[in-house]
Structure formats: structure tokens, C-alpha cells
Design goal:
Length: 469
């Protein structure tokens, strides 16, 4: 990572930097002290459903018991009052970029990997899937996490996005970012390939470096840029599958979603945001066995910015500095000039906006698993932590039952990422990745922004910011 960043400084001066607020530190309670969530409602994410008035005991990194309130408690236990609150599994964000930034093209910022990681944990996200990033930096994070030198969510990664020559995301970076930032960013987040054999080589190289998924992009930004053919994509997917690794695709239109799924891709991120998915197309996607992580928030935010009405959520204002958030204010956005190619894409996004939530509902009704994902630090104004919480509310607004949305943000992606894992649910013996929220998220999904406790592998994190008003 160091070399491209150094080049960035040498070639175009220092990108902007910000002073980030301290968010969390751990542990808030010594590991030897048992923790008891007392008289709490539990969203178990198991067949047990939601349980009222429970005592949940955590010892070390495990949940050891869940029982009706009133039983005897260990004398040295630390009691956390849970009345009126809900205990859930730590959230899973299916779509993040740990090594990216949420900055807009007109305000390039150095990534702050610690603040991004802390933001995710602060918002209650204890596991993420990194679907595109700098492989050197991700390997470094993995090593630091393993030796306890990095406080962040559990994570898996894909490494750089494999894409045809001139395709997204390199095409977008060349179009939207100033040179040389554009060429550094394109090289940092994608590899462009010109043949099946080059694609397979990239697959092998990533797997050798610890990638547990492969990421491809079947999308056009700007519109009319080159895109995968099935003849090029299918052998790449087969090469990954032959090595026991699944493939995630960035998609935009129904046609591209179907091209990816027919080529054997396992998960679609960004779902459908250009065009309207028909019931028949949704049924074909279901039959092809894909899961989808729609990221409605990404496109709402871009559109709100373009229409000069974007505003960060209270949680985002708590997590990110005001001078960074201000880069998206109508006053700043009005002063920017985007290229014709980007404007054409944004207009298309606006035209298709009415279908965005409807396509998600159709996929849900067709029986496709819908996983919560945010594109944190991968798209402008997709703030780590806050964007996923917003996405949960948008999925409910799109017509999914809150319970389904919460299962799609916990146990279901957990089992997709780690089929035999013992995490992602609140049950005796499970790894204690837990969050406490103030209220009942099944009755009101907005309370997911009111996290009061976060435990990662049983470690209770001390929260250093005042609670959301
Ligand atoms: Zn992304």
C-alpha cells in the first residue's frame, strides 16, 4: 500500500486529511469477569425466535447460557441492564471496502483503516466481507488482527476486482477522478484482464494470498463501457469454484445480473439499479441460486447528492468529523463539475429510481436471500457503520419484514461466509459477537441506530462517544 500512496503525495500533493473522533477501545470489562445481560429481549436469529425477559451470560469468548430472568447469577458477574433493550447477534456487513474511503471525487482523502474499522464496530458490525481492496493492505490487516494489534471486525476478503480491459471500476476511476489519483486508484482496486488465462491467473494469485471470495464487476460506469461476456466470465467463475471459492459480482441492470448468474456467479452486490427486474427474471435468478445484497443506500445517496439534498444521519455525525461530512453539503456539491459520462450515468440512475426498491421486493418474493450490505468506504458518502444501519431501514421500507431484514444482516450471511461457523446467532455455545440496542428493532427498525453495547468475541468494547440523541 505504501508505494502507491507515496506516489500520490509526490505527484499531486497531500490528499485531504481529517481528525477522526476516538470511538471505541477495549476491553471495557476484564476478560475474566462473566457478563450478564439482565432481563433482556433476545433476537436469537435461531428457531427460538425472539425471547422476552432473559438473562444471557457470556464467559470468555462464548455465550454460556440463556435463561428466563430470575435465576442465580455468579457473584463476580458484571450486570448489564437489558430492560427495554434487545440483544442481537453482531451485524454482518456483506459489502465493505476496508481499504477504501467514502470521499467524493472532488475531495480525495487518505484511507484511515483504523477509523473505518472502529466505525464498523461502533455501529454494531462485528463481521464484514471486503469485496474489493488493496491486497497488500488486507494481508497486513489480517496479520495484525491475528496478533491482536488491530481492533476491527472479523473479516474475509476478495482482493482486487477482476474486470475486462477498460471495464468498471477502472473505467469509473478514469472518468471521475483526477489524474494521477485515477490511475493509482484503478490499479489499487482492480486488475484489468484481456483473456481467460489472465483471469484464471488472477484467481489463483488471490486465493494463494488468502482471498476466500473472488470479486468481478458486470456493470457499466459510465454507460457504454466494455463489460464481461459470458465467454470470458464463465471460465473465471469455474476456476474459482474448482478451488472451492465462490464469486461475487457487482451488477447494475437485470441483463447484467442474469449474465453473472448464468455464468455461475454466487452472489450479486448492488442488485438492480438500472432498469426494472421482472417477476420472471427474479424467478430465474432464484433458480440459478444466487444471493443478493442490494445496497439501496448507495444509489439513494448518489441521487440525493445530485439533487442537492443529501444529509448524513445522526449516527454518521457521531462517527465522522463535521468537516468531512460537509464535503457533501449542497453548497459544496453545487460547485462541482462532473464529466458528461458521469452525468449521463446519474441521469439514468434517477430515471430508474422508482424501480430500485421494487426490484428488491421482487427478488425477496421470488425467494432470493437478501443480505444487508452497505458498500462502506466504497462509494461516496457510504460511511462505515452508518450506511449499513440506513440500509436496514431501506430494506424494511422496500417491503421486507423486519425479522427477515435482521436475519439477512446476521445468521444468513454468517452461514454464507462461514458454513460451519458458530457465530451469527445468540445461542448457548456460540461465539459472543453481540450487540445491545435500545428498543425493539422488530417493531421499529430505526432503533438499530441506538446501539449501547458491542461485544466482539466476548470482548466488551468501551464506547467513547455520547449516545445518539
Ligand atoms: Zn463496493
Amino acid at each position: 500500500m505504501l508505494r502507491p500512496l507515496l506516489a500520490l503525495v509526490l505527484l499531486c500533493g497531500c490528499p485531504a486529511s481529517h481528525v477522526y473522533p476516538a470511538l471505541i477501545r477495549g476491553p471495557a470489562t476484564p476478560a475474566s469477569v462473566p457478563l450478564v445481560f439482565h432481563d433482556v429481549r433476545v433476537f436469537t436469529a435461531t428457531e427460538a425466535g425472539v425471547l422476552e425477559h432473559q438473562d444471557v451470560v457470556v464467559v470468555g469468548d462464548r455465550i454460556v447460557s440463556i435463561a428466563a430472568t430470575g435465576g442465580a447469577l455468579a457473584p463476580n458477574a458484571r450486570l448489564i441492564e437489558g430492560a427495554g433493550k434487545t440483544l442481537l447477534p453482531g451485524l454482518v456487513d456483506f459489502h465493505v471496502h476496508l481499504t477504501g474511503t467514502p470521499s467524493p471525487p472532488w475531495h480525495v482523502v487518505f484511507p484511515d483503516l483504523d477509523h473505518t474499522a472502529h466505525s464498523l464496530l461502533y455501529a454494531g458490525i462485528t463481521t464484514v466481507q471486503d469485496v474489493g481492496g488493496d491486497l497488500d493492505a488486507l494481508e497486513e490487516l489480517k496479520a495484525k488482527a491475528a496478533s491482536g494489534q488491530w481492533l476491527g471486525p472479523h473479516f474475509t476478503y476478495a482482493g482486487k476486482i477482476i474486470t475486462p480491459d477498460g471495464s468498471y471500476p477502472a473505467s469509473y476511476m478514469r472518468e471521475a477522478l483526477p489524474w494521477p489519483v485515477s490511475s493509482i486508484a484503478a490499479g489499487r482496486f482492480s486488475n484489468e484482464i484481456d483473456s481467460e488465462s489472465a483471469g484464471i491467473r488472477e484467481v489463483e494469485q488471490r486465493i494463494a494470498r488468502g482471498a476466500s471470495i473472488i470479486k468481478v464487476a458486470v456493470a457499466q460506469v459510465p454507460l457504454h463501457t466494455p463489460v464481461y461476456t459470458r465467454a470470458l466470465l464463465e471460465p473465471i467463475v469455474k476456476a474459482a469454484h474448482a478451488r472451492g471459492v465462490r464469486v461475487v459480482a457487482h451488477t447494475d441492470s437485470p441483463e447484467h445480473a442474469l449474465l453473472a448468474a448464468r455464468s455461475g456467479v454466487d452472489a450479486l452486490v448492488h442488485g438492480i439499479h438500472l432498469g426494472e427486474l421482472t417477476v420472471e427474471q427474479a424467478q430465474e435468478l432464484k433458480a440459478l441460486g444466487v444471493v443478493v445484497s442490494p445496497t439501496i443506500d448507495v444509489f439513494n445517496r448518489i441521487q440525493d447528492m445530485a439533487e442537492f439534498k443529501y444529509a448524513p444521519t445522526p449516527l454518521e455525525q457521531e462517527i465522522y468529523p463535521a468537516d468531512y461530512l460537509a464535503q457533501f453539503s449542497p453548497a459544496v456539491v453545487r460547485g462541482q463539475k462532473l464529466s458528461d459520462g458521469m452525468m449521463e450515468w446519474i441521469v439514468a440512475l434517477q430515471q430508474h429510481a422508482p424501480h430500485r426498491a421494487e426490484s428488491v421486493k421482487r427478488m425477496y418474493e421470488a425467494g432470493i436471500p437478501i443480505f444487508a450490505g452497505s458498500d462502506a468506504s466504497g462509494s461516496a458518502a457510504c460511511w462505515a457503520g452508518g450506511a449499513l444501519i440506513d440500509e436496514l431501514a431501506l430494506l424494511v421500507k422496500a417491503g421486507l419484514p423486519p425479522t427477515e431484514v435482521l436475519l439477512g444482516a446476521t445468521v444468513r450471511p454468517a452461514r454464507w461466509i462461514d458454513a460451519k461457523g458458530d457465530w451469527g446467532m445468540v445461542s448457548a455455545g456460540a461465539r459472543a459477537d453481540l450487540i445491545l440496542v435500545d428498543g425493539d428493532p422488530v417493531a421499529d427498525i430505526a432503533v438499530m441506530a441506538k446501539v449501547t453495547e458491542v461485544l466482539k468475541s466476548g470482548v466488551r468494547l468501551e464506547r467513547l462517544r455520547p449516545a445518539v440523541p
